[in-house]
Amino acid sequence: MLKKYWKEVIIIGLVFIALGIFYVLSINNKNDAYAYVYHKDELILEIDLSKINNTTTYDVMGSYSTLYLECQKNQIRVKDVEETCPNKICINYGYVSNGVIICAPNEIMIKVVQKNSLVDA
């Protein structure tokens, strides 16, 4: 009976091997997130978000007031801004894991970039 279905057995075996390889690669394929904080186009802070295990906060002084950043694993948000900030729109962005947060009055830009750890940049 095995002689009759040998092609199917080989195909099924190859499918399982391919699935196993795909599974191993997907486990090891981790994206590391980095946050770059700019003030007036000058990089003032770089945060490796992938290495953060507990909630971490940073105080960043802008042109108008201080921004309080809160970081968690692979994501960042503006938790609060001093009372002197007129708009506080940047707080409404929430956590960002890939993209940009902009605080126009303070001239602060937070750029979050995902970098694949399997690719050597």
Structure, explained:
By secondary structure, the protein is of the alpha+beta class. The protein has two domains: 1-30; 31-115, mini-chromosome maintenance (MCM) complex, domain 2, CATH 2.60.320.10. 19% of the residues lie in helices and 41% in strands. It has one helix and seven strands; from the N terminus they run αβββββββ. The chain has one helix at residues 6-28; strands at residues 31-39, 42-48, 56-61, 66-72, 75-81, 99-103, 108-116. The strands form two sheets. A four-stranded antiparallel sheet has the order 2-1-7-6, with no helix packed on it. The protein has a three-stranded antiparallel sheet with strand order 3-4-5, with no helix packed on it. The longest helix has 23 residues, at 6-28. The radius of gyration is 23 Å and the shape is rod-shaped. The termini are far apart. The mean pLDDT is 83.
Brief sketch in words of this structure:
Helix content is 19%, strand content 41%.
Show the helix and strand layout.
Layout: H1 6-28, E1 31-39, E2 42-48, E3 56-61, E4 66-72, E5 75-81, E6 99-103, E7 108-116
Antiparallel strand pairs: 1-2, 1-7, 3-4, 4-5, 6-7
- CATH architectural designation of the largest domain: Sandwich
> Helix and strand succession?
HEEEEEEE
Helix/strand/pairing class, anyone?
A: alpha+beta
Helix content: 10-25%
Mean pLDDT rating? 83
- Major sheet characteristics: 4 strands, antiparallel
What would the keywords be for this entry?
121 residues; alpha+beta; mini-chromosome maintenance (MCM) complex, domain 2; four-stranded antiparallel β-sheet
